[in-house]
């Protein structure tokens, strides 16, 4: 059939009124199961597709969801994005993606642009969220969900993970293997999750009667290069037997730093990361790490946002997901 198939053509073929076809396509009640089945079969046979522009005019919505990530160059944000896209795929919502790249001004400008009627709702991954930007979101009344906020008291619906118990579990794994001199690489100090993970490490050590040696704790950026550089200094100067990193990229850099010092992993040195990025399973040896459910975080954030767009109230403003220790081949008992 040439040209765009119309509701009238579907109605004629199915032997029902155009209003019945419209109601069935829109998911409204009223039609019998048999009528609904027949209309949907005819619509599929003729290749009918709803006119999204007309539907948007009628509902006052754009059919678009905006997403602003802190960074789109690492697998962390991309895994969350994949979860968001999977959830929106069946909801007739398209996704507009942007990134702030740690720039608070750019983040505010992007939010202001999207909030001008371009999108129905907004998802933010690890945003900077200065007070002025939060006030902008309140003023525009744009449905918004934050994934992995920099601070937990942000006054917006948010999705986080159990950073504390995840890091305690990862540290305990090394203690159970017999390690007592364990180094720690912290991430960015402007993230509350950094402090929470470090507290989990400290408490695991303290409860095992082990000292957290000041010289074995270092702060660095969440990058492979920073992990390589910082771990190389710790290993060569202070000789721990294991290292816990606040992120997988740090751990992967640290593993290569150990190799550059002539050590083998895990026979001479053990490593634990945090995230379970795809690279963790693909590295050699496979990285033992604490898994954040990144895909699930994206899915649950998208689901919450769709509820807000529909005018529903969320059962909880803060959803915390669990973590899981994934044991691979980067950990072993310390050398004799």
Automatic annotation (TrEMBL):
SUPFAM superfamilies linked to this entry: lambda repressor-like DNA-binding domains, Periplasmic binding protein-like I
One GO molecular-function entry: DNA binding
Source species, domain of life: Bacteria
UniProt xrefs under CDD domains: HTH_LacI, PBP1_LacI_sugar_binding-like
HTH lacI-type domain ranges (all copies): 5-59
InterPro entries reported in the protein's UniProt record: HTH_LacI, LacI/GalR-like_sensor, Lambda_DNA-bd_dom_sf, Peripla_BP_I
UniProt cross-references to PROSITE patterns, sorted A to Z: HTH_LACI_2 (PS50932)
Keyword Transcription regulation: yes
Keyword Transcription: yes
Keyword field: DNA-binding, Transcription, Transcription regulation
Name this protein carries in UniProt: LacI family DNA-binding transcriptional regulator
């Amino acid at each position: 059939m040439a040209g765009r198939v119309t509701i009238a053509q579907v109605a004629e073929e199915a032997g029902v009124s155009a209003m019945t076809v419209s109601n069935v396509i829109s998911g409204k009640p009223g039609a019998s199961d048999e009528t609904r089945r027949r209309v949907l079969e005819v619509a599929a046979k003729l290749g009918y597709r709803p006119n999204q522009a007309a539907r948007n005019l009628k509902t006052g919505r754009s059919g678009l969801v905006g997403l602003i990530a802190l960074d789109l160059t690492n697998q962390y944000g991309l895994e969350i994005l994949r979860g968001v896209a999977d959830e929106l795929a069946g909801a007739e919502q398209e996704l507009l993606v942007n990134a702030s790249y740690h720039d608070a001004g750019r983040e505010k400008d992007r939010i202001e642009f999207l909030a001008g009627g371009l999108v129905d709702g907004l998802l933010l991954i690890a945003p900077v969220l200065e007070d002025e930007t939060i006030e902008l979101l309140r003023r525009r009344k744009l449905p918004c969900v934050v994934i992995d906020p920099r601070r937990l008291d942000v006054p917006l619906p948010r999705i986080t993970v159990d950073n504390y118990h995840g890091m305690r579990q990862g540290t305990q794994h090394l203690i159970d293997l017999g390690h007592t001199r364990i180094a720690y690489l912290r991430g960015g100090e402007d993230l509350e999750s950094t402090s929470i993970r470090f507290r989990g490490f400290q408490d695991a050590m303290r409860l095992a009667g082990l000292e957290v040696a000041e010289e074995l704790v270092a702060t660095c950026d969440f990058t492979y290069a920073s992990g390589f550089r910082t771990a190389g200094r710790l290993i060569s100067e202070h000789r721990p037997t294991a290292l816990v990193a606040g992120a997988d990229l740090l751990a992967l850099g640290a593993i290569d730093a150990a190799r550059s010092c002539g050590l083998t992993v895990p026979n001479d040195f053990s490593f634990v990361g945090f995230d379970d990025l795809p690279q963790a399973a693909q590295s050699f040896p496979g990285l033992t790490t604490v898994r954040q459910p990144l895909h699930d975080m994206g899915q649950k954030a998208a689901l919450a946002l769709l509820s807000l767009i529909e005018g529903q109230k969320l059962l909880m403003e803060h959803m915390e997901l669990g973590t899981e220790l994934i044991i691979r081949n980067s950990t072993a008992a310390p050398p004799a």
